[in-house]
Amino acid sequence: MDALSQTLRVVRLVGAIFINARFTAPWCYQSPSADSAAPLLEPGAERVVIFHLITEGECYVELGNDPPLRLAAGDVVVFPQGDAHRMSSEPGLAPAEGARLDVVLSRRPRQLSYGGGGATTRLVCGYLACDTRLAGMLLAGLPALVRVNVRGSNAGIWLESSVRYALAEARSPRPGGEGVLAKLAEVLFIEVLRLYMNEQSEGRTGWLAGVGDRIVGAALNALHKNPGHAWTLDELARTAGTSRSVLAERFQQLVGSSPMQYLTQWRMLLAANLLCRSNASLARIAEEVGYQTDTAFSRAFRREFGSPPAAWRRSQSAAARENSQCRLT
Questions:
Q1: Hey, what CATH topology would domain 213-317 get?
Q2: Where in the chain is the domain with CATH 1.10.10.60?
Q3: 176 C-beta neighbours (distance < 10 Å), count
Q4: With 0-12 CB in 10 A as exposed, 13-18 as middle and 19+ as buried, what is 106?
Q5: pLDDT digits (tens, 9 = 90+) for 264-286
Q6: Quick one: CA dihedral 9, 11, 12, 18, positive or negative?
Q7: Could you tell me which CATH class the domain 3-199 is placed in?
Q8: What is the C-alpha separation between 125 and 167, in angstroms, rounded?
Q9: Which regions of the chain are under pLDDT 50?
Q10: 273 Cβ contact partners less than 8 Å away, ≥ 6 residues apart
Q11: Is 135 helix (H, G, I), strand (E, B) or coil?
């Protein structure tokens, strides 16, 4: 299993399509920052990433002082850092005084429709909630705005059709429609990452750039395939088909850490995942992620997360129960 697939297997992605929008020109919509929207979208989420899929027509997105970017049907635009942004039929329009996000979210189905009666643009807005550390690794090095067109891939075409179908189902009395949309949001996000990796230009840095690099990608695949192995830099370099100096320099350049530092971080993320999702003993988890003793494992975990693994597990369980109550009220 490659490093991206392995990471996506571990990372806890909670996705949803939260608005189905139809705008007619002229129109302008101000999207809030993910930090302010997160308590409404996914209570307790550490990190929320917002995305929009344009299904019909065209529009512009404006982010900070950057030039407006034109979007067309099939484009997906993602905001990895969750920045506030503006969507409009043409640049420079003032945002409408539309319904508050909490009001839109209370609707079933969650639809938004307004504008001046001109050309129609349809888009769906979604989000992915995930762990801060895993999100930081996956999204490191990405620009504030990522745009790909899913109509350039067979999977993307299928996804766009599936989203349209699921949106129609969400309006029907049959149960499960919103659950289907949630899974499609996750798959759509993963496909965006894969397309972005294929399209990214030279000079990019970050974890995804490392995965796509011949040398660093081979090393990452090896570390993710067997994280419990007692890796040395020499052995990892041989696996990647290069020298230890070349691997160390290239890994640091793209990923931002040494291979051995990265291995420790990945082991801790795996351990945190096991602590949250299983009842395995600390000794079993320590062995699985490459530590010979509970003491060495606890020391490393405390350095990364600020508390011993047993205490951290209890705090996460308590937080999960509290967040479940938030969703029920």
A1: Arc Repressor Mutant, subunit A (1.10.10)
A2: 213-317
A3: 11
A4: exposed
A5: 999 998 999 899 888 999 999 99
A6: negative
A7: mainly beta
A8: 12
A9: 328-329
A10: 10, 12
A11: helix
